[in-house]
Amino acid sequence: MNPIEFAVWTIRGVWGRPSLFKGPAKGAVLHHSVTNLVDPPDPVADAQAVEEVIWRRRIKSFFQMDAYSFKVAQDGTAFVVRGYKYRNGANRRTKLLGPLLFNRNTLSICFIGNYHPNVAGVATLTPTDIQLRAAAKIIRDGIASGDIVADPWIGPHSDLHATACCGDLLRADIDTIRDYVNNPPEETTVQVLPEAQQAADDGIWTRFDAAGVDTAQQPATREHASIMALRARDQAIAEIPSAPTEVIAAIPPAPTAALDAMATQLATQASIIGALSDRLSAVDATLTAALARIDTLETGTGPTDSRSEVLQVQIVGIGTPA
């Protein structure tokens, strides 16, 4: 399953000027978003919620866009964020010891949700196997494309910075991710909900294409296409202005006399504008003739009475030379 492209799911987009990525990346740093998931499940809304958290911290933390390179949801949905186009902004390093990895030579993968126990107000999750596979596939595909070195460092953000990120429960599964990178498991198909399948059979892909989204950026499953298309439909319906029938019926019609007076006023204004236009045309012709006469005097191509000849131009409506 290919990651969903940034332009398809983002709400905030690129709000600043992030630095370009100059690979290959030497390491993949793992994070967790420490956010609650929406109910009912919606991986796109979860990815957007993480982006919103970053956007709210943009001034304090100088974020130019969502900070991560990629995100992965519990159902295995992967999202491109900065990808390999922009340098990631999440891998802050403050520790003196450890691998020499920084934002400039790494990528970041954020597991959507909270994977550390006892965080107040946030539910604790355990990484799903399909989520671990999705992260491993991002790294594996990056190695294949040359955007990541052949044997990258893979580890938690806590190895670089004084933080609990990526959470104890995800940290316990990092070896599994490394194993999936080196020994790719069989591809696992994301289960499609019956409702989404029915939506697909009703032409969900056709409606998604009609929205003008590049086919290369389409979600990898019908379920995600259904979520996006239905959300777009609901938004379009919500934006349609409506008014009760009784309100419309109560609007009094404009009096005929008022409409006639308005029409007469507009006709008068049009007549005035026409007269002004004719006057300006006459002035323009007079000025053109005057300029031609000046040119004749300066070049000496026409007869002159004396060197001190004075040209007087009288333009009706403008004024008479003193």
Description:
The chain is α/β, with parallel strands linked by helices. Helices cover 42% and strands 9% of the residues. It contains eleven helices and five strands.
**How can the largest sheet be summarized?**
5 strands, mixed
Question: How much is the radius of gyration in Å?
Answer: 34 Å
User: Could you spell the SSE succession in H and E letters?
Assistant: HEHHEEEHEHHHHHHH
| CATH topology-level name of the largest domain | Lysozyme-like
The whole-number mean of residue pLDDT values reads 79
The number of distinct structural domains comes to 3
User: How do the strands of the widest beta sheet line up side by side?
Assistant: 3-2-4-1-5
- What CATH architecture label of the largest domain applies? 3-Layer(aba) Sandwich
Secondary structure blueprint with pairings:
Elements: H1 6-9, E1 25-32, H2 43-56, H3 58-61, E2 70-72, E3 78-80, E4 106-111, H4 129-145, E5 148-156, H5 168-171, H6 174-182, H7 194-201, H8 204-210, H9 222-239, H10 245-250, H11 256-299
Parallel strand pairs: 1-4, 1-5, 2-4
Antiparallel strand pairs: 2-3
Helix pairs in contact: 4-6, 7-9, 8-9
